User: Which sequence fits this backbone?
């Protein structure tokens, strides 16, 4: 094996049908595809046969740490899981970021990723301990919730008292079996729900995409990892100096109020006092100095970590925007303990909280408009959901979330398929208003409305807010919510200085037209992909400006733009491969174009690059719906900027060959 830096040298390929484990040299994938989303795209393009569906054994489920995962770079605990997505209406490939410690632990064990395919003949889990990799019977764990299952796995493995090398190591210390890290599914995944999560620890999860359902379809309950190796930096001195520089920049940016509110969700909207009194400590992913989430201990429910939308899921079913205030129908209701009960229950069952918030909002809107019945009895007869007016109680959470996780009844089966498929089916019986209420809450790809608009008095990102033309383009061109890795795009609106700084054009600062937005959206999309592939957290990267909070950090400037090359500096120090930020953006473009090629091979064309019809027919806060003519024109601009055929949306041969993807161009016959 080569003397790897940052990457560790092997990727595990696990065929559950034959129970064969293959160690693939990492140089098959890296450095050309970086890690994270890059590994996912390369594996799906190379190894998933045409015509494969999300729950087919031949779908690949890829657990993909990033290039910098396991180093001392800031926030490298973020990593990705990807596959053909069961939650997407067309099952296009997608990816979900996840935090915590599992990604770093996998690299400490000596692996840059795990590729899972096939289907086990019985419930199994994968146990990775350095060189030892085993497929084990998981019958004793099947049926356990995602929190309790992890605890039992850790206790059982520790009780075995054996490991290939228990000795003290100068680089990494002593192996302690109880510290094993797991990713796991709950009952929703076991029942192949399209909105099931993959859970890690007590609150980290790959939520979007439905990958818990993919894991369950393969009879894979968990992957448990413990490693005693290390991730080496090519130039440790330069790495330390660069990391110190980044940490100082983060100190400028980090809001001092984040930890008490358990994450940015407490700042961005909702009611930040809802659970603040129950925070016991702050919590962070591996390698993160900010600790932007809280660890909560609320009477009546198990403790755990949570943040952002997750915290508000069972408190807010105004629910149109991601962090709108609670519905006025529930004003004054004490929701501290019950809100946390819903959070924990969703995590235990491993159901996507963002989707659940949309389901709750959509169901309540249907009840208010008497779509499923004008009385509670009629509503229950048509849905199987009793006492709809008790939404927000512990009993209601038990019933509704249980219906989804266990596919109970006809309505539970529908909701387990996700709101997109449920609304599509229900409009046949109950009329198109069911679908309109769905579209109001879900932008595209079956995923929840999230920063499609910039904000208004009802709450940030509410659909009656101000336009977000960059967000519109990213929503239309991707296969999932783009704001898990590109939330920074809202910051430059209104600032020509910042717009010029990040996008290279001042025009993009104006949110009320499409000028410069094709360029801005492409740069944002590639930046987001770069974050997901090399290992930087979207909540803080790219750092666009530096406003010193502490007086001793202020060098005299009231405001200065930041260094946008910092990601390339730390990547170069860690890997020993000198890259400029332009080099990394080209690498990210290679990944984005390969993702696009996979979707093109599955039938995606220009007409699929859009969002739900609702937004063309309903006004924003200025009184204007999205103009179709202007929208189609900016799509032309986008395709021209990124090198895709404007008639079809297919990448051109020239673009693919520029990115060293000639084989892809040959396969697509462009």
Assistant:
């Amino acid at each position: 094996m080569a003397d790897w830096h940052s990457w560790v040298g092997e990727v595990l390929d696990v065929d559950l049908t034959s129970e064969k484990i293959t160690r693939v040299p990492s140089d098959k994938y890296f450095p050309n595809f970086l890690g994270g989303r890059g590994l996912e795209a390369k594996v799906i393009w190379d190894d998933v046969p045409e015509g494969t569906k999300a729950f087919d054994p031949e779908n690949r489920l890829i657990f993909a740490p990033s290039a910098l995962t396991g180093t001392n770079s800031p926030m490298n605990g973020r990593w990705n899981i990807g596959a053909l997505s069961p939650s997407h209406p067309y099952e296009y490939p997608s990816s979900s970021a996840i935090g915590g410690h599992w990604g770093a632990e996998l690299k400490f064990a000596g692996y840059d990723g795990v590729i899972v395919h096939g289907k086990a003949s019985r419930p199994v889990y994968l146990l990775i301990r350095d060189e030892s990799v085993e497929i084990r019977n998981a019958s004793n764990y099947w049926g356990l919730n995602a929190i309790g299952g992890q605890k039992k796995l850790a206790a059982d493995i520790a009780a075995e008292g054996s490991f290939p090398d228990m000795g003290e190591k100068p680089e990494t210390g002593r192996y302690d079996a109880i510290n094993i890290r797991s990713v796991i599914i709950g009952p929703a995944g076991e029942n192949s729900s399209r909105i099931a999560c993959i859970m890690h620890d007590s609150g980290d999860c790959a939520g979007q995409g439905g990958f818990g359902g993919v894991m369950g379809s393969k009879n894979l309950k968990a992957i448990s990892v413990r490693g005693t190796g290390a991730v080496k930096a090519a130039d440790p001195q330069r790495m330390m100096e660069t990391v110190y520089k980044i940490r100082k920049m983060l100190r400028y940016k980090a809001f001092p109020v984040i930890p008490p509110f358990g994450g940015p969700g407490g700042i961005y909207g909702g009611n930040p006092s809802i659970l603040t009194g129950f925070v016991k400590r702050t919590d962070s992913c591996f390698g993160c100095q900010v600790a932007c989430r809280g660890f909560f201990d609320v009477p009546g429910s198990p403790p755990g970590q949570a943040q952002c939308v997750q915290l508000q899921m069972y408190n807010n079913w105004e629910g149109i925007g991601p962090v709108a205030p609670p519905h006025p129908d529930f004003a004054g209701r004490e929701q501290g303990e019950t809100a946390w009960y819903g959070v924990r229950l969703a995590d235990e069952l491993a159901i996507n909280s963002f989707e659940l918030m949309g389901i709750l909002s959509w169901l309540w809107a249907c009840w208010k408009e008497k779509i499923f019945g004008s009385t509670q009895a009629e509503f229950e007869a048509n849905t199987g959901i009793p006492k709809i007016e008790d939404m927000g109680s512990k009993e209601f959470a038990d019933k509704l979330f249980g219906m989804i996780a266990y596919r109970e009844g006809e309505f539970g089966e529908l909701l387990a398929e996700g709101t997109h498929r449920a609304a599509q089916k229900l409009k046949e019986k109950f009329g198109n208003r069911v679908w309109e209420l769905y579209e109001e809450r879900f932008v595209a790809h079956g995923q929840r409305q999230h920063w499609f608009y910039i904000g208004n008095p009802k709450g940030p990102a509410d659909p009656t807010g101000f336009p977000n033309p960059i967000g519109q383009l990213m929503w239309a061109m991707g296969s999932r919510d783009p704001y898990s890795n590109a939330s920074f795009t809202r910051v430059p609106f209104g600032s020509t200085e910042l717009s010029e700084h990040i996008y290279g054009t001042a025009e993009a600062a104006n949110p009320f037209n499409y000028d410069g937005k094709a360029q801005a959206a492409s740069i944002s999309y590639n930046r987001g992909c770069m974050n997901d592939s090399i290992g930087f957290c979207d909540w803080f990267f790219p750092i666009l400006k530096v406003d010193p909070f502490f007086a001793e950090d202020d060098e005299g400037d009231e405001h200065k733009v930041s260094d946008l090359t910092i990601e390339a500096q730390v990547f170069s120090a860690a890997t020993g491969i000198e890259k400029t930020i332009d080099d990394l953006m080209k690498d990210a473009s290679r990944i984005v174009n390969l993702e696009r090629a996979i979707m093109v091979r599955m039938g995606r064309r220009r007409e699929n690059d859009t969002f739900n019809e609702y937004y063309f027919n309903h006004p924003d806060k200025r009184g204007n719906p999205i103009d179709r003519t202007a929208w189609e024109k900016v799509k032309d601009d986008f395709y021209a900027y990124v090198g895709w055929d404007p008639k079809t949306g297919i990448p051109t041969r020239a673009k693919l060959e520029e990115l060293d993807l000639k084989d892809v161009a040959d396969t697509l016959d462009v």
Remarks:
- Residues 581-601 form the longest helix (21 residues).
- The chain has a mean pLDDT of 89.
